[in-house]
RNA sequence: GUCAGGCUAGCUCAGUUGGAUAGAGCAACGGUCUUCUAAACCGUAGGUCAUGAGUUCGAAUCUCAUGCUUGACACCA
């Protein structure tokens, strides 16, 4: 914000000598808690010692010397110098920027078009998508949009869990208790049933686990029957996943899952051997990471089969080659922190300079009654059920609130899914939460539908006004009650950068709520469609709010319907 | 046991780089629709920022210790 710079400049000038550098002053300027304390403020505490004066006195003296021409007013309030910006001038500039740049407002080119690979969603084949996968999916999708808004080129990779011992187990279960007919009727649910039964029986019959491992080994060795079963399970599962992704309107640049790297494992082993990192321990091949204060990483099991780590190493090398990423992100639950630390450490140890570009983006887990979700134990919340419930409730809401609405079904989808997605993104990623349907599909208060509703009302006003062309309008608004909203609008470019810096979609979600709150307050207390000479300027504000809310929601992967 | 998170209103959470009186939403209570969509707005009430020490002009924020809690800790992912 160059208002800040402007203030730093007048302060530098007033302070004279080299007491504080311009940049130091700039860094000290803060935003007061409430707007009656001004728009920006400079605390004088740190000058007290050098100037040997009380902070209050320093503030008063500074105000005397400052060039106040470009501000509404500059006042000393205790130890602070408080700056009130010229609301009409600054406000008109912000609104003009938004109306001319439209959806590009807030976009920057910090990323210089660098490729960012994002490992996200990554559901396991033969298991239903649960609320847990929703997190990785929507966080990854929002981050992709945020990176893009900051000038990067995101590459969304769905690293499908289509390989691993669980397939061996599933094959054993299918061969013991399954039937082709049953699977065809309801693929995923049936496969899960087998999987759960396997784990129940494996508790009694320890040989089952060994058998599962053996079948997985057969699969890895290219056994015909194993391969055929695997492919069948995979195809059926993918079909179901795609319907959910369609509903969420999330797409991927790659579905290369774990199986894709089967033929790339040898390179990893070769590389680690050449670097002298691979050692044998208790019959298995491992990399020692004591140096990094991490447990050993297992690369090959005693039976020669590869592991999660081996495949992730292969995937990272492949991605570097294929995409030459500037950042390589993994949107994976926080419980896997150590795994990614290990992975990074291995690449560091192997002296790959891009090891530092690997970033784990952890998130908190979803529990039910405080307990972790688990397919094995059958404790699972199906994503499809939640989405269906949300859409149904949105539909009911529309019937009571706006029964004449056109496209009811479409809007119900946008609002219902919007509620679920927004709920998942509004809090800091790393927070865990206990699942409660009534929380997830709430439409009032700090929710997605609240933001959508704010936007819909803004659109409604613009419609009533006949959607006038506002590009050449004088956007000066003298009504001070519009100022809070305008100020928040002006903050959007900063917010976009902060969301990127912190890898936090919640920064955008919180911003959208703040903007909505400020706008709703303004809406409730001022009549926008009043016939006076500032009508068009006010419509410009409404339009700007609509643009920025739409763009915020878009980044989160949520629709902004024009009516609801 | 080791390592890593978390602890702020009854509940769910905000609180950029330490700064002014710690803020929202939900729940509770009260008010506002003949005027732009009441999925909204306004008000009341609600706090020893887990505890103790330290650094600082100043700590919810930084350091250390303690407690409680969650997760990870090689042949799963």
TrEMBL record:
<dbReference type="InterPro" id="IPR036695">
    <property type="entry name" value="Arg-tRNA-synth_N_sf"/>
</dbReference>
<feature type="short sequence motif" description="'HIGH' region">
    <location>
        <begin position="123"/>
        <end position="133"/>
    </location>
</feature>
<keyword id="KW-0648">Protein biosynthesis</keyword>
<comment type="subunit">
    <text>Monomer.</text>
</comment>
<feature type="domain" description="DALR anticodon binding">
    <location>
        <begin position="451"/>
        <end position="564"/>
    </location>
</feature>
<dbReference type="GO" id="GO:0004814">
    <property type="term" value="F:arginine-tRNA ligase activity"/>
</dbReference>
<keyword id="KW-0436">Ligase</keyword>
<dbReference type="InterPro" id="IPR014729">
    <property type="entry name" value="Rossmann-like_a/b/a_fold"/>
</dbReference>
<dbReference type="InterPro" id="IPR001278">
    <property type="entry name" value="Arg-tRNA-ligase"/>
</dbReference>
<dbReference type="InterPro" id="IPR008909">
    <property type="entry name" value="DALR_anticod-bd"/>
</dbReference>
<keyword id="KW-0547">Nucleotide-binding</keyword>
<dbReference type="InterPro" id="IPR009080">
    <property type="entry name" value="tRNAsynth_Ia_anticodon-bd"/>
</dbReference>
<keyword id="KW-0963">Cytoplasm</keyword>
<keyword id="KW-0030">Aminoacyl-tRNA synthetase</keyword>
<dbReference type="InterPro" id="IPR035684">
    <property type="entry name" value="ArgRS_core"/>
</dbReference>
<feature type="domain" description="Arginyl tRNA synthetase N-terminal">
    <location>
        <begin position="5"/>
        <end position="85"/>
    </location>
</feature>
<dbReference type="InterPro" id="IPR005148">
    <property type="entry name" value="Arg-tRNA-synth_N"/>
</dbReference>
<dbReference type="Pfam" id="PF00750">
    <property type="entry name" value="tRNA-synt_1d"/>
</dbReference>
<comment type="similarity">
    <text>Belongs to the class-I aminoacyl-tRNA synthetase family.</text>
</comment>
<dbReference type="Pfam" id="PF03485">
    <property type="entry name" value="Arg_tRNA_synt_N"/>
</dbReference>
<protein>
    <recommendedName>
        <fullName>Arginine--tRNA ligase</fullName>
        <ecNumber>6.1.1.19</ecNumber>
    </recommendedName>
</protein>
<keyword id="KW-0067">ATP-binding</keyword>
<dbReference type="Pfam" id="PF05746">
    <property type="entry name" value="DALR_1"/>
</dbReference>
């Amino acid at each position: 914000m160059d208002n800040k710079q402007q203030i730093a400049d007048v302060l530098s000038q007033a302070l004279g000598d080299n007491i504080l550098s311009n940049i130091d002053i700039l860094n000290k300027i803060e935003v007061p808690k409430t707007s009656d304390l001004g728009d920006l403020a400079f605390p004088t505490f740190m000058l007290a010692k050098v100037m040997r004066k009380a902070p209050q006195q320093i503030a008063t003296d500074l105000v005397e010397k400052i060039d106040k021409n470009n501000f509404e007013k500059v006042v000393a309030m205790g130890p602070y110098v408080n700056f009130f910006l010229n609301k009409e001038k600054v406000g008109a500039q912000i609104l003009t920027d938004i109306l001319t740049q439209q959806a590009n407002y807030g976009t920057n080119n910090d990323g210089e078009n660098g490729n960012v690979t994002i490992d996200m969603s990554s559901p396991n084949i033969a298991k239903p998508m649960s609320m847990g996968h929703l997190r990785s999916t929507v966080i990854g999708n929002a981050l992709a949009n945020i990176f893009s808004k900051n000038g990067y080129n995101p590459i969304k990779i769905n690293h499908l869990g289509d390989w691993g011992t669980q397939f061996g187990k599933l094959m054993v279960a299918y061969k013991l208790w399954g039937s082709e007919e049953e699977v065809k009727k309801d693929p995923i649910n049936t496969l899960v049933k087998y999987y759960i039964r396997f784990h129940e029986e494996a508790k009694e019959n320890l040989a089952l686990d060994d058998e599962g491992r053996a079948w997985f080994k057969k699969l890895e060795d290219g056994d015909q029957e194993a391969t055929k079963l695997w492919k069948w399970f995979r195809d059926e599962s993918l079909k179901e996943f795609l319907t959910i992704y369609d509903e969420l309107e999330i797409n991927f640049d790659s579905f290369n899952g774990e199986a894709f790297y089967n033929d790339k494992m040898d390179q990893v082993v070769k590389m680690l051997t050449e670097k002298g990192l691979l050692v044998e321990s208790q019959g298995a091949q491992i990399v020692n990471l004591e140096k990094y204060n991490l447990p050993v990483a297992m690369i090959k099991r005693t039976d020669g089969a590869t592991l999660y780590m081996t495949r992730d190493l292969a995937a990272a090398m492949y991605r570097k080659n294929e995409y030459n990423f500037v950042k390589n992100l993994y949107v994976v639950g926080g419980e896997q922190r150590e795994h990614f630390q290990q992975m990074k450490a291995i690449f560091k140890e192997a002296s790959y300079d891009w090891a530092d570009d690997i970033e784990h983006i952890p998130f908190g887990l979803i529990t039910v009654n405080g307990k972790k979700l688990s397919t094995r134990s059958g404790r699972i919340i199906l994503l499809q059920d939640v989405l269906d419930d949300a859409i149904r409730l949105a539909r009911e809401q529309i019937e009571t609130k706006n029964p004449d609405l056109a496209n009811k079904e479409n809007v119900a989808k946008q609002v219902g899914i919007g509620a679920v997605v927004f709920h998942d993104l509004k809090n800091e990623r790393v927070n865990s939460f206990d699942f409660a349907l009534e929380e997830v599909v709430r439409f009032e208060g700090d929710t997605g539908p609240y933001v959508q509703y704010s936007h819909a009302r803004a659109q409604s006003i613009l419609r009533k006004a006949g959607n006038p062309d506002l590009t050449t309008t004088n956007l000066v608004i003298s009504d001070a009650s519009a100022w809070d909203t305008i100020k928040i609008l002006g903050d959007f470019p900063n917010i976009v950068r902060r969301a990127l810096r912190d890898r936090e979609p919640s920064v955008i979600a919180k911003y959208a709520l703040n903007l909505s709150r400020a706008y709703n307050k303004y809406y409730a207390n001022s009549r926008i469609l009043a016939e006076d000479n500032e009508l068009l300027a006010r419509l410009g504000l409404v339009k700007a709010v609509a643009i920025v809310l739409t763009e915020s929601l878009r980044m989160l992967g949520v629709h902004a319907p024009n009516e609801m």
